[in-house]
Write a structure and sequence with these properties.
With 196 residues, this protein is of the alpha+beta class. The chain is built from four helices and eight strands. Strands 1, 2, 3, 4, 5, 6, 7 and 8 form an eight-stranded antiparallel β-sheet that branches. Strand 1 and strand 2 form a beta hairpin. It is globular. It binds a DNA duplex (13 and 13 nucleotides) through strand 3, strand 4 and helix 4.
DNA sequence: CCGCGGATCTTCT
DNA sequence: GAAGATCCGCGGA
């Protein structure tokens, strides 16, 4: 009997949440099937003076959920093509979110392959923020979803405490502003990380 | 393996 | 108008 990580896990400093999400299991129920992947890469987007964060522009219809309580999903559409999934950190009233950048597929691989026809190998299924949303069928319908809800279609389960990941840190990928901050976390030498 | 450009929508200047 | 937390197919080495 598994249960999702509680809200208290998320309502902590964003960097801590980003680091400790490594190794956790993202579980997606869709079309009667359960898909799951281990989180192997994340990035923290902070409140305050992090100019790369969407919340830097203030509270807007799009960024509303980032200012709400922790443990909810922030999904947005980018480049007219892809969706990206974030998990909200910090308590209500304080912005902060964690971009889920890559998963190691664990179950439901057949369904993931059907959703990702461009993936030639299994390491292409979810090794990027847009790829993993496509693999798991995550879109704007999941905006605001409560990932601490055991009955929800999207949930996150605790990592195995007996196998703590070897965590590496770098600058974030694909941004221009506040680009020099060490806010990207990934599991060292994992084949499913989006890039070196 | 590496670099380049197109796709195509939302948000902000 | 333009940039953007991206991905993919193509061509060349």
């Amino acid at each position: 009997m598994r249960s999702p990580l509680p809200r208290a896990f998320y309502e902590r400093p964003t960097e801590t949440v980003a680091r400790e999400l490594l190794g956790a299991m993202l579980v997606r129920r869709i079309d009667g099937v359960e898909l799951a992947g281990r989180i192997v890469e994340t990035e923290a987007y902070l409140g305050g003076d992090d100019q790369a964060a969407h919340s830097y522009a203030g509270l807007t219809p799009r960024t509303q959920v980032i200012f709400g309580p922790g443990g909810h999903a922030y999904v947005y559409f980018i480049y007219g093509v892809h969706h990206c999934l974030n998990l909200i950190a910090e308590a209500e009233g304080r912005p902060g979110c964690v971009l889920v950048r890559a998963l190691e597929p664990v179950s439901g691989l057949e369904a993931m392959r059907l959703r990702r026809p461009a993936a030639k190998r299994d390491r292409d299924l979810a090794s990027g923020p847009g790829k993993l949303c496509q693999a798991l069928g995550i879109g704007l319908d999941e905006y605001g979803a409560d990932v601490t809800d055991p009955a929800g279609a999207l949930a996150v389960h605790a990592p195995n405490p007996a196998a703590p990941p070897d965590v590496a840190v770098s600058t974030r990928v694909g941004i221009r502003r506040s680009a020099n901050l060490p806010l990207r976390f990934f599991i060292r030498d994992n084949e499913h990380v989006s890039r070196k």
